[in-house]
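Researcher: Structure prediction, please.
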Amino acid sequence: MDYKKSGVDIEAGENAVNRIKSLVRTTYNKNVLTELGAFGGLYQVDLTSWKEPVMVASTDGVGTKLMVAAMAGVYDTVGQCLVNHCVNDIFVQGAVPQYFMDYIGCSKLLPDRVEMIISGMTKACRENEMSLIGGEMAEMPGIYHNDDFDLVGTIVGLIEKSKIITGEAIQEGDIVVGFTGNGLHTNGYSLARKVFFDVMGKKVDDYVSELGETVGEALLRVHPSYYPLLKDWVDPSFNHGMAHITGGGLPGNIKRVIPNGLCAQLDSKSWEVPTLFQLMQEAAKIETVEMFKAFNMGIGYVVIIDRTQADKLCLETKGMQIGEIILSEKSEKVRII
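Model: Predicted structure follows.
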């Protein structure tokens, strides 16, 4: 017996690391002090650029979107999705991304697949102006099986203490501005897979005329980052709250930043629900309330802003006014009409 016969190929791991080193290096800046392969990634914060820096950290994954990626044999997009999802999560509080770390767990370490995943991650890291400083690849055939793999990321950002956006400043009359999504993003895939593959009987490579693309292409669209679009709008004097629309949809995520006594009233007719969601709802006869719980329904990110700045925000970013803040009734924090 040896390690390889038990299911763990150390040489494959070393091969994968060697193949991704040049990709990872493209994300480095002057703050990165270690090369890939160190026991810990060293990152020096330039304190001359900050007065009272506060660290903001988050860890997340991309859910069962990974299963669609495996079915399609397309892995770079989920790497981008992971990074962008994590960026959006910390940007809700106004944080500027600094560095990222990843975890890839699998039953069998395939260097080609790892390289594709990391190529997507590094592309997203560059677009979000941050560094990928390390990670972990774990080959565990007793935990994962066949083509199973898992993908998790940890992000660290910084925000000036005086600019932290918490939602506490939200007030009656504020405008809810929505920003369009790009498909399912990274949530609702368990239901979406049931609809497309079980109810509709589709395969990942099947072309869907209503969508103008294959099932795989529709489900693997890259989860966008809203940081590049909105980074110049981090000012708590008028930007009173933000929400990343992930699991739980619009009602489940907007309520996380709404103070007691207030309610975000959203007009569902103020934006067009993408065909992808309409198709799934019709095919599986899903109640509208359930659709809004499971999916983003075409709105991937929300900013709650002082009404005096709402028109300017929409003009400069192509956002849409989709609702306003009203006094709440019966502790209701989000209402969709």
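Model: The domain at 10-163 is CATH 3.30.1330.10 (60s Ribosomal Protein L30; Chain: A;).
Researcher: Thanks, that helps.
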